[in-house]
Design goal:
Helix content is about 20%, strand content about 20%. It is α+β, with helices and mostly antiparallel strands. It has three domains: about 5-175, no CATH class; about 195-225; about 250-350, no CATH class. The chain has a five-stranded antiparallel sheet, with no helix packed on it. Strands 19-16-13-20 form a four-stranded antiparallel sheet, with no helix packed on it. The protein starts with a helix and ends in an 18-residue tail after the last strand.
Length: about 350
């Protein structure tokens, strides 16, 4: 019988989707990091330490990523994966609430032998710290120090941080030309995307590039839908409305229909500055629960901690699937205004209790 290791040797991409891997020990991971706490420009963050010695399933290959901060298209990441359900909780970054999917360099993981009897380094994070207290404290402090930039103070006086999201362009500097079919084929071969949805996504991409070129070079002759990109989302409000539902983690909600949401948007598809984009359309009319409120997030572009003064929540299991963004595997949580949601249950004391997502992603 072939072992998992033998099967992996034939894989062109290293760890495969669905494979069980073990996060290496703190000591082993530290040995791979430079003085900035990084490997190939990718930070190993203090939020990741709690997972050392534990086993998880590879969720997606992370060989390609989008760049929403600077809009420079797609970039190549080498030798990295996402692990199922592992997101940043922001504890080492000022309580950032974006809950980004963590990147794991393959050098930080080991394959699990088919006949292994128990997890190496098993036990609670607290027990592992007690086993090598001095080392763990030193490593944690080193990684915490690496999260702050400019002494923790940005030029305008805000807190400033470095994390995987802010450093992605250093970790993935190679830009992928949109017309290079090879990275789309790579997505399908690795299992990150299926062939037919990928073909549909490529068609949408080509259509939208035509629309943008039409706007740029022939603005006096807009051939299709006024040059708008697909999916067509544009409101008409000059001053967008607000509605406060007082939502708490665990509250059941229904996401309103596209028509109801568009009625709250301006011509740039925004409600009080927050955009509603095509990736959110697939969830219209569905029911879910509030995962958390969001009022603090780190800007990927500047590293500054942004305060969100208006109502903003993320929803359980509601992620960006990359349908209109070339199937980017980052699975970012979209942000929702409460006016786009409908409460399904009256508020209760239980709703204020900590809510644990039932969905892996």
């Amino acid at each position: 019988m072939k072992t998992r290791a033998a099967e992996r040797a034939k894989q062109p991409f290293g760890f495969s989707i669905g494979e069980v891997v073990e996060v290496k020990s703190e000591q082993e991971i530290l040995a791979t990091l430079d003085e900035r706490g990084e490997l190939d420009g990718l930070p190993f963050m203090p939020e990741m330490l709690k997972f050392c010695g534990q086993r998880y399933t590879v969720y997606r290959r992370a060989h390609r990523l989008c760049d929403p901060a600077t809009q420079t298209g797609f970039h190549r990441m080498e030798n990295a994966v996402h692990l199922e359900s592992l997101r940043c909780d922001g504890e080492g970054h000022g309580g950032c609430q974006a809950k980004c999917l963590l990147y794991w360099k393959e050098a930080w993981l080991r394959p699990v032998d088919d006949h292994a009897s128990e997890v190496r380094g098993s036990g609670t994070p607290h027990e592992r710290v007690q086993g090598d207290h001095a080392f763990s404290i030193g490593m944690r402090q080193q990684l915490l120090d690496a999260t702050r930039t400019d002494g923790g103070i940005a030029s305008a006086g805000e807190e400033s941080y470095a994390c995987q999201a802010t450093e992605l362009m250093r970790a993935a500097p190679t830009r992928l030309p949109w017309w290079d079919i090879r990275h789309y084929v790579r997505d399908v071969r690795s299992g990150d995307a299926k062939a037919l949805p990928m073909l549909r996504g490529i068609f949408i991409m080509l259509f939208n590039k035509f629309q943008r070129a039409n706007q740029k070079f022939f603005p006096w002759i807009l051939f299709i839908r006024g040059g708008a990109t697909y999916p067509f989302i544009a409101g008409t409000q000059s001053k967008t409305p607000a509605q406060r539902l007082g939502l708490k983690p665990g509250d059941r909600v229904r996401i309103k229909s596209k028509e109801e949401i568009v009625a709250t948007l301006d011509s740039n598809a925004r409600n009080r500055g927050l955009s509603f984009d095509g990736e959110m359309l697939a969830y219209c009319g569905t029911e879910t629960r509030v995962l958390s409120q969001v009022n603090r997030i780190i800007s990927e572009k500047t590293g500054r901690m942004l305060r969100l003064p208006n109502d903003c929540v993320i929803l359980d299991g509601v992620i960006c699937k990359g349908t209109y963004n070339h199937f980017c595997p980052r699975n970012i949580y979209p942000y929702w205004r409460e006016i786009w949601l409908e409460r399904l249950e009256p508020p209760s004391p239980a709703a204020s209790a900590p809510f644990v997502s039932s969905a892996a992603m």
